[in-house]
UniProtKB/TrEMBL annotation:
Family designation: Belongs to the NDK family.
InterPro entries, per database record: NDK-like_dom, NDK-like_dom_sf, Nucleoside_diP_kinase
UniProt domain Nucleoside diphosphate kinase-like: residue ranges: 4-80
Source organism per UniProt: Canis lupus familiaris
Domain of life, source organism: Eukaryota
The organism's taxonomic lineage, starting at the top: Eukaryota, Metazoa, Chordata, Craniata, Vertebrata
Single GO term (MF): nucleoside diphosphate kinase activity
Protein's name in the database: nucleoside-diphosphate kinase
Names of the cofactor(s): Mg(2+)
UniProt EC number: 2.7.4.6
Root EC class: transferase
Keywords: Kinase, Transferase
GO biological process, one term: UTP biosynthetic process
């Protein structure tokens, strides 16, 4: 499996805080994705600015970074089942 076959998925704070993480992961697994890495993180401002660099000129960028820092994020990598 080439690394480019992996899909990055983030469960944002509004999915983590009401305990929807399990349901969201199950949804992706039912769609044929295999979970290979999962990590609960509190994303730093620097990490978020780097991750969303392509949106830096959008008027909502600062709000997006602030929102993503408002709670924990579940970061995952999946790959399609073969």
């Amino acid at each position: 499996m080439a690394n480019s076959d992996c899909t990055f998925i983030a469960i944002k704070p509004n999915g983590v805080q009401p305990n929807l993480t399990g349901e969201i992961i199950e949804h992706f697994e039912q769609k044929g994705f295999c979970l290979i890495v999962i990590k609960l993180i509190q994303a730093s401002e620097d990490l978020l600015k780097e991750h969303y660099i392509d949106l830096k000129d959008c008027p909502f960028f600062a709000g997006l970074v602030k929102y993503m820092q408002s709670g924990p994020v579940v970061a995952m990598e999946h790959y399609p089942q073969q």
